[in-house]
Amino acid sequence: MEVINALGRRKAAIARVYVSEGAGKITINGRDLEVYFPSSILQYVVKQPLNKLGVAEKYDIRVNLDGGGFKGQAEALRLAIARALVKINPEDKAALRAEGFMTRDARVVERKKPGQPKARKHFQFSKR
User: Which residue ranges form the domains of the chain, and what is each CATH number?
Assistant: First the structure.
């Protein structure tokens, strides 16, 4: 099997994954998954599509992660892995879509408006 690549985004995070056959090793920016994401919850989020299809020990995944915070990065990586798995086996798409792993979460931070302290917060109004 050749190397399959895919892209996932969430908030400001971008994940590029390269999936090849192997023993289930996930390397992120040259570091192991457990080192990069010490939180077991985020490790679980990243592995969700692999566990759903039961192929966690079948593929080696190399990742370039950039931007955003750790939660956005984990969710971007989940989307990228799901997209790569669908490239490998298109029949898996329905199962991954049912769990919501194929949907790009488009919610991003709203921009700050001029004359206000934040996006929606306003300075206190004073009549006099």
Answer: 4-99 (3.30.230.10)
